[in-house]
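Notebook B, p. 112. Complex prediction, attempt 2.
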Amino acid sequence: MISDAPGQMGMTSESASQVPLPEGAGQSNYTVIPKTSAEGTSEGELLEVAMGPQHPSTHGVFRMDVVLDGEHVVKLKPVFGYLHRNHEQIAESTTYLGSMPYTDRLDYLCSMTNNWAYALSVEKLAGLQPPERAEYIRIITAELTRLVNHTCLVGFLLQDMGALGTPLMYAFRERELILDLFEALSGSRMMYNYMRFGGCRVDLSADWIEQAKQVVDGYSRFLDEFEKLLTENEILVSRTQGVGVLTVKLAINASITGPMLRASGVNYDIRKVDKYGIYDRFDFRIPLGDHGDVYDRYMIRVLEMRESVKILNQALRDIPAGPIMDPKAKIRGFRPKAGEAYGRIEGPKGELGFYLISDGSPNPYRYRVRPPSLINLTVLEDMCLGETVADVVIILGSVDIVLGEVDR
Amino acid sequence: MIGEFFKGLFLMIWKVVTDQPDPKVEFVSVFPATIQPIISVLLSIVPIIMVFASLFALTTLLERKGLGRIQNRLGPNRVGPFGLFQPVADGLKMLTKEDIVPHSADKLIHFLAPIVLLVPTLLAYAVLPFGQNMVPIDMDAGILFFFAVGASTELSIFMAGWSSRNKYSLLGAMRAIAQMISYEIPLIISSVTVIMIAGSLSLVEIVDKQSGYHFGFLPHWNVFTPWGLAGFIIFLIASLAESNRSPFDIPEAESEIIAGHLTEYSGFKYALFFLAEYLGMFAVSGLAVTLFLGGWRAPLPFLEIVPSYIWFLLKLMGLVCLFIWIRGTLPRLRVDQLLNFAWKFMLPMSLINLFVAAIWHFTSVWNFRGAGLGRWLLCAAMIAVPYVWLGRTLIGNKKITHRTYRFAN
Amino acid sequence: MLGEGIIKGMVETAKNFVGSYHDPKRLTTVEYPENKIPAKENARNFPFLVFDGVDADKGLRCVACQICEKECPPKCIYIIKDTVKKPDYMGKMQIQPKIFDIDISVCMSCQICVEVCPFEAIKMDTQFELSTTDRFENLLLNKRELAKPNEYYHKIHPTEATEVDERLAAEKAKAEAKAKADAEAKAKATVAAAAAKAAPTPVPAPAK
């Protein structure tokens, strides 16, 4: 369909940079890849489209080089790094405490869990043990973060599906309540910088717990409303079921974690496997999908939110009084003894781990993040091949990436 | 001369307001005979453009306010009282924006596309009866004319998409062509039912056929018959697709292909596209009102003192509000599902509806006891059964089911 | 049946549409310049320097120890120590910062400077309307712009400020007690020394 375009194919970067009338001006700027059949005869052309980094639905500055045959995806190459901020190098040149606020900026939707994962690995390194109240606070904030993240995700997913912001606005309405809680607790709405090695920075007040109880009570009502709005919607169902299937084998081989893995039917949740913190004291279940498609990923998140509400109810009921910092912990002059540690938690997006090597100095010798978003993104092409452009967008949405974490 | 001019003018306005026949006659006769036809035409064109352009401004505001409320926001409220001047601000912004034409675009076609879209959209208004005595041209084949000019809008969308030399525009244009041609068919077939029953292609005639009331309160509108209701729903769905409204806004799907054929348009040309799209929506809703909702007729006998054009506008705005409501709720279909829906569901349903309308027509001679009710139930069943069956197959083919989930402890 | 889910969804949006008129809880946003949500007590934005008394130059609690400068993750604090000691508002001689700049275009509001400060001298502000027309000059706050009285600190973070004041008072009391004890000990020592001094004189006498 494009072969009628006159002149040379493809505008090179040199010709684009010349100021007075580029060489390819008035001619085609499509990159056309000839499509040949098995016998070698021409069957038209493939169209290469760069979706992103300014594309509206790539969740930040992410690019997919998509080769299209009509509307169908033949090849997809993810290109990222537009938001690279040298996170690991910065962390290696600053103190242990100094990179805590930087972990907020990894996955900016769930800063609390990032804080926790980092604090957990430093605690392992330095041999600190947070007191019981601090453990409860961590679970409460982490589960609230899971609610925030999953709510945003389903909102964004439906926005990508073209629902014009209504589900997203409802999701943000509820997220706002939790952000208010977090602001009252930590002082900031997104960049909490709340956890400390061996505890938490600020204590919860009784007032805060009452407010949190109200928010959590309202949350199941919101989930009911949301599910009524969309879960049975024929358009949503037909758009998502059977689209972007991730097989169990591929999911395990590509070391996918989090809701994506569980949507494919693998029972693996670090909250149950590691029992870090005090997760073994709570009664909750792990929802598992059977198909591994976009619909399962959506539903697993909705069901996980319901389980989170259960955990929150238990935690807010049982939280004991007591100190919130390990007395051994110190803020100034923190130097863990030489050694290494890997701390991981079940973040809302998957396994979030921090690997640290200490040489006894105030800065980590090596600092490495295992970002769930990046590793879950690796199977994007496998899920997208053969689907249409419209599906690529929702498959990307269902992977749940935050570019701050992918690029670091 | 001047006295006659103002007398004619006031008489015309008075006749329009009070809904009397032939409002233009006295005013036009003031002018020399040679330019009388031109004046007469202008007197039809100018009000249509003015009324519907201001309705467009009002609707953009209404849409943003309504969507805002649906999404628990306030909507625009900064410009003027309650944000009433927001459309003015938007318009000014659009006009002062730089008009960017891509370097490798086909400049002539890129320039022509919005005009080619706007002109046929305006032409479609020529045959719509806005009020009892307000129809610009009472054409014998009015509905045919409407669809003929309506079909040419597809050309301009493809022109826009092709000439922009943008991959997203091209994808959008391809989608638009596929979508609009597919939905033209159910749109036309569902109107054919009305033509069959009314026995005329003239829109004025069709409105006339819907006069009168059952039992003194239920108007004789087509929508209150089984085939009319089904036809109305099919017509609405198809007209949503024709006017590229959500959930069929696939050609300009923002999250997938940026803005489709509009990607490379800016400034006034973009505003023209926007205007034409809304005018197209009004035109097709106006046709729906005319065909199924009794046109300008009042819903109850004692409300007939309200001028007819008010009823037309109210019904039109009601449909527009429904469109806004749908837009605020539904996610978008995928393009292959959209075509499946058109060819595997809408087309059979509209054909069945055509058949049902024929049966309705031939059973009108029944005169035994309970004939009316029996006829009604027969036709309703003839539509409901295929609806359920087709709906099942449409979903069942893809093995789409209600799912249950396992839980691990 | 086809269309059921769509109708359910439309009912839900209609409920929200109506609800947004009579249920103010649904509307989360406020009309900003006219209405503002009051800042939470723990809210933090950018740091400021606390001073006691009335004179910002004299009362600054900061003693230019430069710990915050060292610990600041994005390195947005810049301090130059004064070379001479100056009397603070109590008249005590202290080293004070000659230059204390915070580049709030770099600052990421992490509050680490507040946590590491041993003198409770730097605290977080809640002021957020800081937009200016010049991102270089106007976003680089100097000592004078940063200094805010203790009363302001009490106004924005009442609980925390009271705690800090109590702690400072306790420390001061302790320091005073210690100083007093020291002084007493010193006095005693001097007395003892004097006594000792006085004593030896008669002692040698018998030795004579």
